[in-house]
Amino acid sequence: MSRRDTHIASLEAAEGKDDTDFVTIVNPARFVHVDQSYRGAEQVLYLNLPEEEADRLIKKRWAIVNVWAPIGKKVTRDPLAICDFRSLDENDFRTVVANLPPKGAGEYANVSKNMAHKQKYEYNVNGERAARYEVTNMAYNPNQKWYYASEMTPDERWVFKIFDSKKDGRARCAVHSSFPLPGQDEHGDPRTSVEVRTFVFWDDEETE
Asked: Using CA atoms, how far apart are residues 95 and 193, in angstroms rounded to an integer?
């Protein structure tokens, strides 16, 4: 998915719309989140793979990894920040449900497929029209430590894990958010970036 609009452009595009109307502007996400919750990761897996294949793959260790990069120019506004997992408290996680728009309603409609699934993943289907799954937001905690790379260029990448099935104490996800730099012009040229979600599977490690 690519992002080519500003935060203010998304607010302006939403003016006068009903709660059920779609806003197709894709701007940097200015809220602290993980793209899916731990449960939502399985929902996303079953959204995008045939049921039998997903059943087989989750018997071993698996993960979801994002690749994020600027496109066209260096980042001078709304950079991506990532929270040090060692500094966060998972009790601050807040689960919400993402309802993606139906096909044809902007880039968010293409984030996930909407494949048939088992009933235990009941959040996957939103009226048989679009994907629906759990995501994680995170409440503020003064102990959190955040990092970002200044003025990233198109030949640089963030590669970060947003889910890991392992429960042995390692970081299981990278909580992240964009944020406005001090003094940045909200009506200036937008940050342009692209992000790709990938599934990773291990044949030689147990799932947990």
From this structure: 26
Question: According to the model, what pLDDT value does residue 26 have?
Answer: 84
Q: Residue 3: its pLDDT value, please?
A: 87
Contact by Cβ (8 Å): 207, 58: yes
pLDDT, averaged across the chain: 88
Residue 168 contacts residue 30 (beta carbons within 8 Å):
no
* Cα–Cα distances in angstroms (integers) from residue 88 to residues 63, 79, 82, 201, in the given order: 20, 20, 11, 26
Burial classification of residue 86, based on how many CB atoms lie within 10 Å of its CB (0-12 exposed, 13-18 middle, 19 or more buried): exposed
> pLDDT tens for residues 137-176?
999 999 999 999 999 999 999 999 999 999 999 999 999 9
DSSP state of 176: E
CA proximity to 135, closest of 103, 176, 78, 82: 176
d(CA 180, CA 6): 11
The one-letter amino acid code at 147 reads Y
77: helix, coil or strand?
Answer: coil
- Token pair belonging to 143: 């102990």
